[in-house]
Known about the structure:
It contains one helix and 14 strands. With 182 residues, the chain is mainly β. It folds into two domains: 5-94, Immunoglobulin-like; 104-174. The strands form four sheets. Strands 2, 3, 5, 6 and 7 form a five-stranded antiparallel beta sheet that branches.
Amino acid sequence: PGGIGKLTAPRPTVKPTQSGDIVTYTWTGEVTGTTEDSVTLNGLSKDKDVNFTLNATFVAEHIEPNRGKKVTVSYRIWRAATNETSYSNVLEFGVGQAIGSGNLKVMGARFNCHTYGHIGASRVLSAFDATTEQPIEAQWKYATDTEWTTATTWTDTTPQEPLQVRSSDKQITLNPANIIGN
């Protein structure tokens, strides 16, 4: 948030770029659509990586709105000498959600669905900073999942699986409920 970033079109090794070539990146966000920017190479910038600065405005308009969504990025090089265009592969990635920092503490109870009287039992877990006792954004997922979910609370729908919870500083695993009784 409020930061800047950089996107790099790497220097081609098989067919080096020349003065007059134009390098263009294409950024397509699930929420924000497509934007492009280009650089015309000169004698000093030919045959080198091409860096595009993603300034604070770009971050605010094209990265922040796509948090939790997918983005694709590619680049192309128009070759001035041959009037041909070379294309990169498309890179697809998810824009991550910001998560909190601090001494992670998870509160709530995992219930055992095989115990008598489990109906109506709480299934909600919450993430806190253990020092300040304030809620924090954490990432949650079951051990068998591949995607993390960012939230301050989690509804435990699969208590028989290990649940992984992480902040920017710490990760813990909550094991399945293993006490049966009334």
